[in-house]
Every structure is written in C-alpha cells, then in structure tokens.
Model the fold of this input.
Amino acid sequence: QLAEKAALETDEESTEGPVNLLEAREKIDELNARILRLTADYDNFRKRAQRDKDDVRQYANQDILEKLLPVLDNFEMAITAVKDADPSIKDGVQMIYDQLFNVLKDSGMEPIDAIGEQFDPNLHEAISQEESAEVEEGKVIQQVQRGFRLNDRLVRAARVVVAKAPEEVTEG
Done:
C-alpha cells in the first residue's frame, strides 16, 4: 500500500505543471542546471575512464618486466665474467644481453644511470657511503645495481654507494 501511495504521489507531481510563466522559467532553469551538472559529471567520468584505461595499457607489462630485471642483471654479470673468454662466447652473451635490453627498452623501461649524479632517495637506494676527497659529498660514486623506470614510474631503485667527506684526522 505504501508503494502504491508513493507511486501515485510521484505521478501527481509529474503531471502538475507550472502555474505561471515565472514558475515555468524557474523549472526550465532548474532543469538546465541539472543537465549541465549531469553533462559535466559524464565528461569527468569519461575522462577518468580514459585515463584509467591509458594507465592500464601503459603499465600492464610491469609485472613481467620486473621479473626480467634479474635476468638482465645476470647477463651483465656474465658479460663481466667472460671478458677474457673466447670472443665468440663473449659476443654471443653480449648479443643476447642487447636483445633483452632492447625488448625492455621497447616496452617502456628506461635505465637509471646513477654514477656521478647527486644522490636522490626517490631514485637511488644507498647501500653504503665511502669517503672520497675527489668526489663531492652526496654524489654517487659507484652503482652496484642499475635502477629502472617504466614510463616515468620507478620500478627498481638503483643501488648505489654515495661519497662522503673524509673525516678530519686530529693529532692528539
């Protein structure tokens, strides 16, 4: 019974029209404002949905690319290990490394080159400090593991050694 009463009340309200021209204009203005709000809400929803879709497309491969980074690291170690080996082995390992590196790069991965840069905690993970008179304090003097970004999003921070000023030796 309550549902029927509510349905009748909404029907009565909807069949009632404005009594005069002023009420009609107010109703039109109210409906126009409502249409504008709904249009703006729809546009915002559409833009947000497109942005979300672009993000998904841009970062969809992040998981698999992250899993390939240790493989790339191992190839870098292999290149270092075979530097004095038969040139055909060295060239073969280098070719595979280059191929993997290019696949990562084509997928949006960018290496972070840290050596000589000012230490940035947003890009670098300091694993130690080393005294150095030649290098300015706070600069990266060694990169232990290369960092990577995927389309400007940090995937892995570069593991680095940071320079610090040498301690003053006091004679006592």
Notes: Strands lie at 109-112, 124-131, 140-145, 147-150, 153-156, 158-164. The longest helix spans residues 21-59.
